[in-house]
Design brief:
Layout lengths: L1 E6 L2 H12 L3 E6 L4 E3 L4 E3 L2 H8 L4 E2 L7 H9 L4 E5 L6 H4 L6 E5 L11 H7 L4 E8 L9 E8 L6 H29 L21 H4 L7 H10 L6 E6 L6 E12 L9 E3 L5 E4 L3 E10 L5 E2 H6 L8 E2 L1
Parallel strand pairs: 1-2, 1-6, 2-5, 6-7
Antiparallel strand pairs: 3-4, 7-8, 8-9, 10-11, 10-16, 11-14, 12-13, 13-14, 14-15
Helix pairs in contact: 1-6, 5-8
């Protein structure tokens, strides 16, 4: 069975590595073109490209997925099956090319959290579980028939970064399970059993923008803590510190805890000993901030921050 793999970030590398280590025949890898990134705007290769080069895999990096030259190169690989993990939206001419079809690994329990940011939104919305799904691609994004799913628990302290790493590993295992079933289908010509997505259960996980990252201190303690964890470490929740007469400072928030209590002060008011802790009043309690980052600085703990910064009376997060 000839497999073409499509992906870009580290999340996809785990699945590609699983296929290679289990002796599946990956005849080509498709990833994004190299592009400038970071402060120095140095040209960066995708994580998938780096892996492909290390393992001497055939590599394609099309600028446009409808480009005739790319389509010709892809056809020449004569793939029986394509896997897509954290890549781009594919045109029909690409996803219909293999006789077994094209299968996507999605980081949610479809049909919940269709879209670009399923890991973030699951935590932001206070879900108790998430998971991964493999499904067969069709026209509408994330709507194809499901082959397999695997659930994972979301703990009260789990961040988006931590859930990402868990689902990366679980997802690689699900790709192998999917490849095994499709290998049998390749050999016997019998299509595997699918589960149709229930449209009544659909919810969406759209791309996250800067306005989604600004903390609203009028929300409940649980909602605020979920948002901070759901955006950590990227794209990161933020707030503005009004510290007396000083200029407002923008502060990124990476982690938090919360407690429910009578809110004795206005939303956004700060409670601190100026040594070890910083808590923020909200609608129904206090949110304790544990890790932050000032603009242009590195991420530090609250204790480290308070050693070099004094919170003044009547200071607030706004």
């Amino acid at each position: 069975m000839r497999i073409v793999f499509m992906g870009t970030p580290e999340f996809a590398v785990a699945s590609l590595d699983a296929l290679i280590k289990n002796n599946y025949r990956v005849v080509g890898v498709v990833t994004v073109p190299d592009k400038p990134a970071g402060r120095g705007q140095q040209v960066q290769q995708s994580a998938v490209k780096k892996y492909a080069l290390e393992h001497n895999l055939k590599l394609l990096q099309p600028e446009k997925l409808k480009d005739e030259h790319f389509i010709s190169e892809l056809k020449a690989l004569k793939a029986d099956l394509q896997f897509v993990v954290a890549f781009r939206m594919l045109p029909e001419v690409v996803w219909t090319m293999p006789k077994l079809g094209t299968y996507n690994l999605h980081a949610s329990l479809l049909p919940k959290y269709r879209g670009a940011a399923p890991i973030n939104w699951a935590i932001i919305n206070g879900e108790k579980e998430s998971g991964v799904t493999t499904f067969k691609l069709k026209h509408e994004i994330d709507t194809g028939n499901i082959l397999f799913q695997e659930k994972v628990k979301i703990e009260a302290t789990t961040t988006a970064g931590e859930l990402h790493d868990i689902l990366m590993v679980v997802g690689a295992g699900l790709i192998l399970k999917t490849a095994e079933v499709l290998q049998k289908s390749f050999e016997n010509g019998i299509e595997p059993d699918f589960l149709q997505q229930q449209e009544s259960l659909v919810c969406h996980a759209p791309k996250i923008f800067k306005e989604d990252c600004l903390v609203d201190w009028t929300k409940s303690a649980a909602d605020i803590s979920n948002r901070i964890r759901g955006l950590s470490p990227y794209p990161t929740a933020y707030t503005r510190l009004k510290n007396g007469d000083e200029t407002e400072l923008t502060i990124k928030l990476f982690n938090s805890k919360f407690e429910i209590c009578e809110p004795f002060h206005p939303n956004g008011s700060l409670l601190t000993d100026n040594k070890t802790f910083l808590k923020v009043y909200c609608e129904d309690g206090l949110v304790e901030i544990t890790d932050i980052q000032l603009q242009g600085k590195k991420r530090i703990t609250i204790a480290e921050f308070l050693r070099g910064f004094t919170i003044k009376d009547k200071a607030m997060f706004v």
